[in-house]
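Hi R.,

Here's the chain you asked about this morning:
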Amino acid sequence: DLVTGKKIGIGSVIDGLYRLPVQVASALISGTSRQLMGVEDRSSIMRWHERLGHLSFQLIKKLFPRLFTSVSMDSFTCEVCQFAKHVRASYPISINKTTRPFALVHSDVWGPSGVPTCRGFHYFMTLIDDYSRCTFVYLLKERSE
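And here is the predicted structure, written out as tokens:
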């Protein structure tokens, strides 16, 4: 415990992370959560939400139920979380429809691949005919090909 200096548990390092046995971790959460959290108010809940990587308020309530004794969980919103959930609007439907094959061809180049093919290709190019949706894929060794 950082406040009292007492040993409150024994853990071990596994793959570079400190791990506590389940009973020690649950005792830490329930027994010292008031000391760790500070005052039970909206700002401390938001602070822990941000510190834990914008963890959902439902999970924060499971971890630290005493934080929510005087505050309703439904009253919390996070602007960052709301923006992160936004999705990009879809592209508008084109009013210019092609009337014959190969009048309009869409292309894209992907790469470089971290692992080349057995013949040394690092990129591929796709060509899509707008009229027929016929797709061609070409392997490239260099992006400039």
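One quick note: Confidence is low (pLDDT under 50) at residues 34-40.

Cheers,
M.
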